[in-house]
From TrEMBL:
Pfam families attached to this UniProt entry: ketoacyl-synt, Ketoacyl-synt_C
Keywords linked to the UniProt accession: Transferase
One annotated GO biological process: fatty acid biosynthetic process
A GO-annotated cellular component: cytosol
Signal sequence segment: none
Protein name listed in UniProt: Beta-ketoacyl-ACP synthase
Annotated Ketosynthase family 3 (KS3) domain residues: 3-414
Organism of this sequence: Oleomonas cavernae
Domain of life assignment: Bacteria
Lineage of producing organism: Bacteria, Pseudomonadati, Pseudomonadota, Alphaproteobacteria, Acetobacterales
Pathway entry: Lipid metabolism; fatty acid biosynthesis
Family to which the UniProt record says this protein belongs: Belongs to the thiolase-like superfamily. Beta-ketoacyl-ACP synthases family.
Length: 417
């Protein structure tokens, strides 16, 4: 029971490529990029001026919290409709949401500071101003507000869970849903990863970490996972949602099962706030834990949906981990990065890539790693460079490696065993 597979009966995706699983899939296999020049705020004095922002859901102005909710709601609505589970507003399971920390960015805080009663420049005064400005603005400050609103909209059961494990968050949401179903806590779960955090402050924060690409001239060429000369990731927005179900219950109700989460594995190294431990121990352990939980070996994996951020260190460490786990087969199992086309959707990435993995199983096509004309000579992986590839795919390893050594891997299969 502890390691049994969990069925996936619905998926939803929103990225800079568009809204909906089919739209995203068609553009991914065509090798199209959603990275573009940012227009939401002035960028003329910033080192990075490009990103994978989602500019088609809301009319400006909007806060990061509002967009993050809209992304999650859109992806979840698609997944729930696809699953055909429960009636409108009556989802018969629990909600696990991966979302970025809830906070107003500089423009909102400056406006509140100007409106604050009494002594300005205090957090207490800003909270008072937010409360006076209206209920919605005040609620935007409250952690868990996005999950609460989603729970109300979809009628999920139990206490909605909000979590943040950096870039592994979306995969962690799936992991928690799988574990809840396995232990009999719920028959179904709605697992969502969402992030609408592209604003000036966030861009500057990542710039100060030297994490972002500054290859601004041609935005579509900037995300270069595993390529020689890669210089950082591309910040992006999006959401991925999965409806997870007890496999027997899904079969009993005649649901169309899209695939199975066969195994989950996590590991942390607590080495550094942003860097991976040079020994790769936690990355290797997360992969091995997922394989063991699924009851498979590296020889059973047909494709790796790589984390592949395009930063010099992450790609090197991920390649090191794959080589350690897969041995001589590391250069033979295909491993590509969706982030080459959609950028790094941060908190949402693990869920977006899990949903793309389900589509990979359905269509039996491997999405490419674009901008990979000159691979890093120190990385000996089959990166499915530039062009999608038909392939027989039964079992996928989807990896998510986050800041702070937070690592989660999923084994996703066409069949339960």
């Amino acid at each position: 029971m502890a390691s049994r597979p969990v069925a996936v009966t619905g998926i939803g995706i929103v990225t800079s490529l568009g809204k909906g699983a089919s739209v995203n899939w068609d553009k991914l296999v065509a090798g199209q990029s959603g990275i573009h020049r940012l227009t939401r705020f002035p960028t003329d004095k910033l080192r990075t001026t490009i990103g994978g922002s989602v500019d088609f859901l809301l009319e400006e102005p909007f806060s990061a919290t509002q967009l993050t909710f809209a992304l999650a709601h859109t992806a979840a609505a698609e997944a729930v409709e696809m699953a055909g589970l429960g009636g409108p507003g009556d989802f018969p399971g629990e909600l696990f949401l991966a979302a970025p920390p809830v906070e107003h960015e500089w423009p909102q805080r400056q406006r509140l500071d100007n409106q604050a009663p009494g002594t300005p420049h205090t957090y207490k005064g800003m909270l008072a101003a937010a409360a006076q400005a209206g209920e919605d603005l005040h609620v935007d400050f409250v952690n868990g507000t996005i999950a609460d609103r989603l729970a109300d909209e979809f009628g999920t059961k139990g206490s909605p869970i909000t979590l943040t494990t950096a870039c592994a968050s979306g995969a962690t949401a799936i992991q928690l849903g799988v574990e809840a179903i396995r232990r009999g806590q719920t028959k179904a779960a709605l697992a969502i990863g969402t992030d609408g955090s592209i604003h000036m402050e966030a861009l500057i924060r990542f710039t100060l970490l030297s994490a972002l690409s500054t290859n601004n001239e041609d935005p579509t060429k900037a995300a270069r996972p595993f390529a020689k000369g890669r210089d950082g990731f591309i910040m992006a927005e999006g959401a991925g949602a999965l409806v997870l179900e007890d496999a027997e219950a899904a079969q009993a109700r005649g649901a169309t099962i899209l695939g199975y989460i066969r195994g989950v594995g996590e590991a942390a190294d607590t080495f550094h706030r942003t860097r991976s431990n040079p020994n790769g121990e936690a990355i290797i352990r997360a992969m091995n834990n997922a394989l063991a939980d699924a009851g498979v070996t590296p020889a059973d994996i047909d494709y790796i949906n790589a984390h592949g951020t395009s930063t010099p260190e992450n790609d090197k460490m991920e390649s090191f981990g794959i080589q350690a786990v897969f041995g001589e087969r590391a250069s033979k199992v295909p491993a590509s990065s969706n982030k080459s086309m959609i950028g790094h959707t941060l908190t949402a990435a693990g869920a977006v890539e899990a949903a793309i993995s389900i589509l990979t199983l359905q269509h039996q096509i491997l999405p490419p790693t674009i901008n990979c004309d000159v691979p890093d000579p120190t990385i000996s992986l089959d990166l499915v460079p530039n062009v999608a590839r038909p392939a027989k795919v039964d079992t996928i390893l989807s990896s998510s490696f986050g800041f702070g050594g937070q690592n989660v891997c999923l084994v996703i299969g066409r069949n339960p065993a």
